[in-house]
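Subgroup meeting minutes
Present: P.N., E.W., G.H.
Scribe: E.W.

1. P.N. recapped why we're keeping a running log of single-chain structure predictions: easier to compare across weeks, and new members can see raw inputs and outputs side by side.
2. G.H. added today's entry (261 aa).
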Amino acid sequence: MLQKINLSVSLIIQIILFCTVGSCTNIKDSVESKLEETKTLFKNGEYNKCIELCNVVLKVNKANYQAHHNKGDCLFMSGQHEEALAEYDMVTKLKPDYAKAYGAKGYTLSQLKRYEEALTAYDMVIKLKPDYAEAYGTKGDILSEIKRYEEALTAYDMVIKLKPDYAKAYRAKGDIFSEIKRYKEALIMYDTALKYNPQYKEATYNKAVTLMHIGKHKEAGELYMGLWDDKTVAEYKKALERGEHLDFNGQHVVIIPKREP
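Output recorded in log:
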């Protein structure tokens, strides 16, 4: 009789364990499915629905760092930067080695013009992923924004060391050299950027602006023509026939009429 009771108890325990494991598996699968759905909603620009679904996941497990991160992304894209920042902070508490969260935090802080905090966040990204070229690039952009040009150049140099064909880093260096009136070096950087990406319009435009600064109007005009529509090109050619030329007024390219004697 006792043996039968023990067997019955053993069977009941196995059934309970099976149901519990099955239930946990189902919950886990449901959470994973919902997280995948949040990514789809994010891609489709359905940010409010994405936030709502993240909240559903977080009711099941408040410590789900991926749900916090996805929610932060949707909050950021919907313009709620402070709220997004709170989510990214939560991610870094739950998973301190998650470099992506520090990157998102740093970018959000930069949008809030909290540049020193943003730099600290990107330093954490670099500490966790020393070979992450884009982190150095964004750090350089922030340093350039606050006019710490030498440090920015150092950051861009690290990008180039890690990704020698990364055209954006050369263009960014060119922008700094142009800003501090080191025009020859700026032109070299723009040429290098265009070597790796011949269709890089921003590098072409900024090279043309630099040429304007040193008085090479004709060369600049040829570059501009590659960027303008047909109507603008035709107007420029007519201006050249009238003896007019291009100049740069600090923000825009303008046509300077021919001076009468």
